[in-house]
Inverse folding.
């Protein structure tokens, strides 16, 4: 496999700039997810790398080979780019074996190669002669990945690979697919709008908004040190509270929280899992429960602090407070700050 | 490095353009010939008592048959779809069956029994009995998708069952009724064989007479241009109706179907009415055929002639179907894969060609071939082109819907797996579209095998088909000799009828 380098890629449809000078490097054998809301340009970027769409400017390099430089471009069938579209898009007229072996030259379509690919994709061997419509959604997805990996591509592109699967299947299918990709040593680019998917599957996450990357970092980096407030809210639950910093401590209606910021007015980012709830009696900070969302093992509790500021907490459901209850609040750990908007 | 992305579309667009130009030759000929005639001659040929008489005859027949077919079609569709009529599945099959008897065979059945039908009322009766399924089938289809809720709401608001149907259901059936009625109109305008046998002069029979007496003449061309104008007016109305029908189907298939209405004491009356209708539509032609086969004095079984006509019919139909489907391919590809103004215009143009009666297409191709390439006159290529012009829209509908089942996404996956454009077409697109293309070819094949008018005028000398053999026997009053060909024609039309009847099946058919 090879690395992928995208440099200064621009794409406009009419007056609308879908991609606005985008740069990204995916290291050889690593997985990068491109995370963004629908319409942010992430699918267009994927289609430019695959060669289905031409860039207006900028270049795409796979390993040492320039495949697109704004003037000329290599045809999609000569790029060696594996492509797994939404819903897998298996060829409906071919069985599983026919799909997987589709990209392999005729002479090399051996039973042993098929067996290897089925095993790689964690598919039972007796599935080889099923028709696509006889497979479950997760199985179709893995056949599509085996099909893309079969001709040994330089890089594999996955476009919203799990969006058609139901919630229960998504997590297990995601894990299985990453296992397959890692086992194959693949360089992969996964486009998704689901932050859970992006953070859990990839080595590197590139957050895209309005045709630009706002942050490219490790999953933990994105979650713990988001580049701006919007990214912070996009990758997880967040409460933003106005605070006054002095000497590395932010003081606000939720209490005193250690921060790494210069003195002045800021907003602090508090993640729901940082908020510990306790008895109201004797607590320094007290809030009133306004709403409780029950999710089985966990509850999400929304509080109104003294001045009415909302704060979201995630807690084990064993001690679920009720709306109207007074609870004590402690913020655990340090927090990230953003400039004051008001 | 090579240039990439979508293959350049100009060769494809060019191919589509060639197809449409070929399909528009007849229309173009009529327009050009009429315009270049000069106002004086045109006026003289147009303002004649003969033209007025033909126009009166044609319009009278048009209005009469559209009215009768609408009443028959809607009435039987409601009976079969919405009541507790016993044996509704069987009635549906029997009511669709007249489509399998070509109109000129049906007329032969009537005329050979009684000359009383050679009148205006006789023509309305016989033509309506042949064409009412064109109203019946779409109305059955529309009734099958109609939900019960609006009618039930109307009942709860105090309307009687009949009033609820009239106010809450009928308006939603209107596009189907209108579409069916206008289709009948187009068929009546194009009908030649049946009207000739019924001795009822209209534009088609007059054009044919003109052609027989003076080959190609300006008088014939003027008649053709009036006929084409009538067809285009009907076609425009039909296109509008079709547009509305699509809207009407939004959100179908979710609601519950209405309960069947008990016929009660009207049941014997309904059964008797249907039985009478079937006796007229199927009983008369079948009785007449049997009569001429068994007792007709001129009945002979010239096995050699029968086999010869059958073989040349099958051969022509196969070749014509192949040519038509090959011509439909680039157009369908443009419409599905290269959406845009140019594609839409090309597709619409191909549909307009569908409104032209066979007689006009044949006349135009004869004249154009004599003037442009005389060596092609009365040869196979011109006949096949006529078939392609006449039946291109049927092929287009099938090929188009099959291409819609082969999304571009699969092509892209194939390209990313290292397959070239051609390999992708061969390994992905072709296998996916071939069933639909095959169905389209079958429809055209069946339509050609019972085609009379264009074949009569264009077939190379010495080439006889079932239809032309039947025609030469029945028009020279050798009814017995015509009978075996009529039987084979009905057998040839049967598969397409079964197909259409299955597509529009009444809901909850009780067998």
């Amino acid at each position: 496999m090879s690395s992928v380098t995208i440099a200064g890629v621009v794409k406009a449809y009419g007056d609308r700039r879908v991609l606005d000078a985008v740069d990204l490097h995916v290291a050889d054998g690593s997985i990068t997810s491109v995370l963004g809301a629908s319409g942010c340009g992430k699918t267009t970027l994927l289609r430019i790398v695959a060669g289905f769409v031409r860039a207006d400017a900028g270049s795409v390099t796979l390993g040492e080979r320039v495949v697109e430089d704004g003037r000329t471009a290599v045809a999609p069938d000569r790029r060696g780019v594996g492509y797994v579209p939404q819903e897998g898009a298996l060829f409906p007229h071919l069985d599983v074996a026919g799909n997987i072996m589709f990209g392999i030259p005729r002479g090399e379509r051996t039973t042993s190669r098929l067996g290897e690919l089925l095993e790689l994709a964690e598919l039972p061997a007796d599935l080889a002669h099923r028709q696509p419509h006889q497979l479950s959604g997760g199985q179709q997805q893995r056949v599509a990945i085996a099909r893309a990996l079969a001709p040994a591509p330089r890089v594999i592109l996955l476009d919203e690979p799990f969006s058609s699967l139901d919630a229960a299947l998504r997590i297990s299918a995601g894990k299985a697919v990453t296992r397959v990709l890692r086992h194959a040593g693949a360089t992969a680019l996964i486009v998704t709008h689901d932050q859970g998917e992006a953070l859990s599957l990839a080595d590197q996450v590139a957050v895209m908004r309005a045709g630009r990357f706002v942050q490219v970092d490790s999953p933990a980096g994105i979650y713990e040190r988001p580049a701006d407030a919007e990214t912070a809210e996009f990758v997880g639950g967040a409460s933003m509270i106005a605070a006054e910093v002095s000497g590395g401590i932010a003081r606000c209606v939720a209490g005193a929280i250690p921060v790494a910021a210069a003195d002045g007015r800021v907003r602090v980012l508090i993640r729901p899992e940082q908020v510990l709830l306790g008895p109201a009696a004797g607590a320094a900070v007290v809030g009133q429960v306004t709403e409780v969302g029950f999710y089985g093992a966990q509850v999400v509790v929304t509080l109104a602090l003294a001045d009415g500021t909302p704060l979201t907490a995630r807690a084990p459901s064993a001690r679920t407070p009720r709306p109207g209850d007074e609870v004590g609040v402690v913020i655990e750990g340090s927090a990230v700050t953003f400039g004051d908007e008001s | 490095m090579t240039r990439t992305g979508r293959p350049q579309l100009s060769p494809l667009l060019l191919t589509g353009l060639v197809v449409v130009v070929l399909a528009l030759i007849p229309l173009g000929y009529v327009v050009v010939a009429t315009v270049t005639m000069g106002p004086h001659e045109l006026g003289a040929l147009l303002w004649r008592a003969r033209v007025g008489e033909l126009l009166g005859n044609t319009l009278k027949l048009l209005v009469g048959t559209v009215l009768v077919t609408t009443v028959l079609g809607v009435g039987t569709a409601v009976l079969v779809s919405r009541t507790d009529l016993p044996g509704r599945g069987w009635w549906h099959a029997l009511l669709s069956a007249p489509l399998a008897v070509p109109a000129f065979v049906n007329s032969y059945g009537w005329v050979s029994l009684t000359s009383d039908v050679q009148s205006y009322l006789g023509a309305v009766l016989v033509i309506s009995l042949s064409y009412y399924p064109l109203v019946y089938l779409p109305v059955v289809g529309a009734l099958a998708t109609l939900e019960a809720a609006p009618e039930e709401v109307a009942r709860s608001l105090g309307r009687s069952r009949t009033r609820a149907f009239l106010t809450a259901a009928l308006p939603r059936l209107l596009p189907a009724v209108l579409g069916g009625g206008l289709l009948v109109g187009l068929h009546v305008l194009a009908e030649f064989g049946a009207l000739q046998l019924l001795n009822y002069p209209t534009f088609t029979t007059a054009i044919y007479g003109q052609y027989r007496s003076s080959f190609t003449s300006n008088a014939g061309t003027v008649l053709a241009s009036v006929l084409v104008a009538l067809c285009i007016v009907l076609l425009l109305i039909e296109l509008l109706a079709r547009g509305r029908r699509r809207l009407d189907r939004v959100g179908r298939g979710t609601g519950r179907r209405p309960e069947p209405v008990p016929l009660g004491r009207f049941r014997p009356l309904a059964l008797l009415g249907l039985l009478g209708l079937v006796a007229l539509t199927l009983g008369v032609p079948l009785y007449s055929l049997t009569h001429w086969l068994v007792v007709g004095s001129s009945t002979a079984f010239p096995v050699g002639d029968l086999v010869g006509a059958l073989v040349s019919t099958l051969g022509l139909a196969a070749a014509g179907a192949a040519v038509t489907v090959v011509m439909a391919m680039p157009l369908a590809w443009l419409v599905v894969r290269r959406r845009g103004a140019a594609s839409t215009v090309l597709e619409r143009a191909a549909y307009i060609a569908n409104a032209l009666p066979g007689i006009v297409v044949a006349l135009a191709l004869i004249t154009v071939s004599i003037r442009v390439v005389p060596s092609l006159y009365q040869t196979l290529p011109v006949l096949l082109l006529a078939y392609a012009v006449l039946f291109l829209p049927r092929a287009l509908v099938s090929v188009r819907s099959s291409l819609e089942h082969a999304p571009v996404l699969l092509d892209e996956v194939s390209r990313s797996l290292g397959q070239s454009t051609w390999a992708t077409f061969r390994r992905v697109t072709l296998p996916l579209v071939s069933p639909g293309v095959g169905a389209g070819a079958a429809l055209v094949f069946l339509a050609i095998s019972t085609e009379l008018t264009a074949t009569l005028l264009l077939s190379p000398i010495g080439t006889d088909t079932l239809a032309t053999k039947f025609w030469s026997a029945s028009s020279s009053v050798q009814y017995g000799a015509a009978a075996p060909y009529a039987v084979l024609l009905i057998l040839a039309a049967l598969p397409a009828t079964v197909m259409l009847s299955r597509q529009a099946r009444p809901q909850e058919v009780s067998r």
Observations:
- Helices of chain A lie at 42-50, 96-100, 111-120, 137-149, 167-183, 195-201, 219-224, 229-234.
- Residues 142 and 177 of chain A are 7 Å apart (CA to CA).
- Residues 4-233 of chain A form a domain with the Rossmann fold fold (CATH 3.40.50.300).
- DSSP finds eight helices and 20 strands in chain A.
